[in-house]
UniProtKB/TrEMBL annotation:
Pfam families: Cys_Met_Meta_PP (PF01053). Its cofactor is pyridoxal 5'-phosphate. This is cystathionine gamma-lyase. Belongs to the trans-sulfuration enzymes family.
Length: 149
């Protein structure tokens, strides 16, 4: 979450959601991307991405995605997509495909650079607190190590 970078325990939320009928767990995984976290494997029913952000990386595509590994949910999503005509053009798909080839490299650099900045700020005398999930000082660092990367 913004701005405090609180992390949801997807497995715990999934257990609660799935203990009741007709409750789906939807995770917005835009900022972690599939490179850093795989919510479907943690119990999410649907994973949402704003592909415009990290996945595309060039700010030249406006696109999103909803993913599921449940056939019934997929059928309903596909019906809605078809009924509403919300499909990207072939050009947009090729632009996104181009960008996905470098996603791993870009995400590793983002993670590395963010951690370097976080470590620097943690030691700075004028900085009171740094909230970066990659730092051991983050209150949910263990959860991040468990469900991410």
């Amino acid at each position: 979450t913004n701005p405090l970078l609180r992390i949801a325990d997807i497995q715990a939320v999934s257990k609660v959601a799935h203990s009741k009928p007709n409750i789906l767990l939807v995770v917005d995984n835009t900022f972690l991307t599939c490179y850093n976290q795989k919510p479907l494997l943690l119990g999410a029913d649907i994973v949402m991405y704003s592909l415009t952000k990290y996945m595309n990386g060039h700010s030249d595509v406006i696109m999103g995605a909803a993913l599921t590994n449940d056939d019934e949910i997929e059928e309903k999503l596909r019906f809605l997509q078809n009924a509403m005509g919300i499909i990207p053009s072939p050009f947009e798909c090729s632009q996104l495909n181009r960008s996905l080839k470098t996603l791993a490299v870009r995400m590793r650099e983002h993670m590395k650079n963010g951690l370097i900045v976080g470590q620097f700020l943690e030691k700075h005398p004028l900085v009171e607190k740094v909230m970066h999930p990659g730092l051991p000082s983050h209150p949910q660092h263990d959860l991040v190590k468990k469900q991410c990367y």
